[in-house]
Amino acid sequence: MTRRPSFGEYEERRNARIRRLREQREGPVRRRRRVEPLLLITWIAGTIVLLVVALIFGFNTIFSPRVMAWVEENPGAIEHGIVQDFVEWYRPEVLADEPVSADQRRTSITIETGATDTSIGRMLFQEGLVTSEIAFQWAVITSDREGTLAAGVFDLFPNMRPSEIVATLQGQPFGEVTSVTIREGLRLEEIVAAFGQSEMTMNLEEFGLLLQTPPADLLNQYDFLADLPAGRSLEGYIPPETLEYEIGSTPRAVVERLLDEFADNLTDEMIAGITERGLSLDEAVIIASIVEREAVIDDERPLIAAVYTKRYLEPDNDQTAGLLNADPTLQYGLMTGEVRPEGHPLLGDSEGATLPIDEWGSPDWWPQLMVTGGEVPIPDFLAGFQTYLNPGLPEMPIAAPRTGSLMAVATAPLDDDFLFFVAGCPDGNRDGSHYFSRTLDEHNAFITQANEECAGQ
Predict the structure, then answer these.
(1) What's the gap between Cα 14 and its chain centre?
(2) Is residue 105, in this structure, part of any structural domain at all?
(3) Which of 143, 194, 148 is nearest to 171 (CA)?
(4) Is 78 a domain residue?
(5) Each residue of 416-430: pLDDT tens digit?
(6) What is the 3-class SS of the chain, one letter each residue?
(7) Cβ(190)–Cβ(141) under 8 Å?
(8) Within a domain: 148
């Protein structure tokens, strides 16, 4: 017979079974690992770096370009400090005071009254005169010239810095100087072209018109222009010199600089000699301009001046009848009628298209004459320059005479009675010398001699 377990044994078995079930349900107890502090710090730092890189990448590739595009569309915003800081960080090169290129292509722009700094900058950028609208706006701000730019017509170049353009548009010289050379014997149109080829930023049209049709207030500044006939240009009164000018000078300032130089060259001795020979200053300048185009050898200038002066002062002379017979006057009249430079005072209302001032450097203003003097076709309104057919002086000088040519008129040896001259070729060499004579017979003999000497030259 099986023995039944006692109550104590039963309790002990039950508790053992409960313990086994509990152990089976909970499983073995796992030992937790300790996380190293260095590893944790490294993980956190890496996460932060990734976040910063992602932020910067997103800012540079998405946000910054959009902000910069907005600034380019609104260049005036560069006046705000936060915008300046952003541009200096993101695109500092757009603020550089640098020219677009080394190109010296003259570009005329017109600033209308009421134009804003922003609209002016846009025009300059479209004309290729500034690297960006922002660069121009920055130059305006840093020079403290907001809203002060003047209306008018200005000549600018791609090789100008934005700061120089700003100074020019405000009508202020910007310190830098350049030399401009006016060669002897140039007519006004060639002088304007010489300035057009320089670094000067003044408007050529305004400069050219000042020379061709000088206003009364300008003429009244100079005593030597007091007797200049009404409607005359400054032809002959612009001295051939190499002078320095501030690049940003105005046309008026340049003309005054040139007239001041003429006044400085006009000595008391020169004026006395001109008066002694029965000439006015204007008549002397006209003759000197012809001498300038004729003379090659300095020692011959007074002799050539004497020939033209005697021919002019002796209109009743049987040999010359007051005719100058000066080829340079034919060239001047011929080309003035053919080319028709804009604004020339003698063109008046005559028909025909005129040559714009910015193209005055293109013609050959002194072409070789292809026919004899009396056959050169000079228009009726320029008949005074046909000095083979019309006695007396032409209506105005024809070129810029050097001081030596004007002094030659003041010292012309009229008592030598020379009335003729012809270019010769001594020893077969065309050296610019002339043979001078008092009578037509002597002159014709020298012509024959010169033709034989110069054959084949």
Answers:
(1) 115
(2) yes
(3) 148
(4) no
(5) 999 999 999 988 888
(6) CCCCCCHHHHHHHHHHHHHHHHHHHHCCCCCCCCCCHHHHHHHHHHHHHHHHHHHHHHHHHHHHHHHHHHHHHCHHHHHCHHHHHHHHHHCHHHHCCCCCCCCCCCEEEEECCCCCHHHHHHHHHHCCCCCCHHHHHHHHHHCCCCCCCCCEEEEECCCCCHHHHHHHHCCCCCCCEEEEECCCCCCHHHHHHHHHCCCCCCCHHHHHHHHHCCCHHHHCCCHHHCCCCCCCCCCCCCCCCEEEEECCCCHHHHHHHHHHHHHHHCCHHHHHHHHHCCCCHHHHHHHHHHHHHHCCCHHHHHHHHHHHHHHHHCCCCCCCCCCCCCHHHHHHHHHHHHHCECCCCCCCCCCCCCECHHHCCCCCCCCCCCCCHHHCCCCHHHHHHCCCCCCCCCCCCCCCCCHHHHHHHHCCCHHHCCCEEEECCHHHCCCCCEEEECCHHHHHHHHHHHHHHCCCC
(7) no
(8) yes
Domain, as residue range, for 168:
93-172
Residue 39 to residue 323: CA distance in whole angstroms: 112
Amino acid at 62: I
Amino acid code (one letter) for 434: H
CATH of the domain at 158: 3.30.1490.480
| pLDDT tens digits for range 186-239 | 999 999 999 999 988 889 999 999 999 999 999 999 999 988 999 999 999 999
Q: What is the pLDDT of residues 108-124, one digit of tens each?
A: 888 888 888 888 888 88
Contact 437, 302 (CB under 8 A): no
pTM over 0.90: no
Cβ-based neighbour number of residue 426 at 10 Å: 13
Can you name the residues that pair with 111 across neighbouring β-strands?
A: 152
Q: Give the integer Cα–Cα distance in Å for 4 and 318.
A: 181
C-alpha distances out from residue 389 to 378, 394, 437, Å: 10, 11, 21
Q: Does residue 159 lie in a domain region? A: yes
- Paired sense of beta strands 177-181 and 242-246, if any: antiparallel
Q: State how many domains the chain has.
A: 1
Structure tokens at 419: 């009335």
- The separation between CA 327 and the C-alpha centre of its own chain, rounded to angstroms, equals 33
